[in-house]
Amino acid sequence: MASNTIIRQKYRKEFTLEFSRDRKSMSSYVTTTTKGSSGSNESAAKMFVKGAPESVIDRCTHIRCGTQKVPMTPQIKQEILHLVHQYGAGRDTLRCLALGTVDNPPRKEDMNLEDSREFVKYETNITFVGVVGMLDPPRAEVHEAISRCRNAGIRVIMITGDNKNTAEAICRRIGIFNELEDTQGKAFSGREFDDLSPEEQSEACRQAKMFARG
Asked: Which residues cross the membrane (predicted)?
């Protein structure tokens, strides 16, 4: 709580770049007052970014290690994504968000804030800070409700903004998939579905039990 208070005292939020489906992230643009080389007060800007790990990490060029910034490497990216995959699988599935900063963002007057398609240009050269995982278990009655639907001949499909690995783990937990069920042809990310031909998409809609984000 103290850390949150200190951050709020140090930075003033100017505006938010709202979440968009294409970049799978959002950010807050903040300013703070620092001492310039001449000793006078100067305003400095920073952006705090959060979003889907695979999207945010792909745009990271550095990683925060204590008070230092070190270059991000392909190997480090893969290690982080591997951990995210582990967090998003198993019985205690965590919904993960990657956190980062843009330490030298464009000036507000140089940004197009009316077109969300432009936001990804400003959320680049990100410094990776970490990943947070949130435990959000399904409500206790969900499994029974799905079982009753199945017994009544109702086909249950889950469509979610979670990534595919997390979504599959949740589906197993609530009974859409059995614990050992092969999900090939029954679970698709948005990107996988988009890559199918129209005929294959029609077949997927007839057979699939789960659609997750791309």
From this structure: none
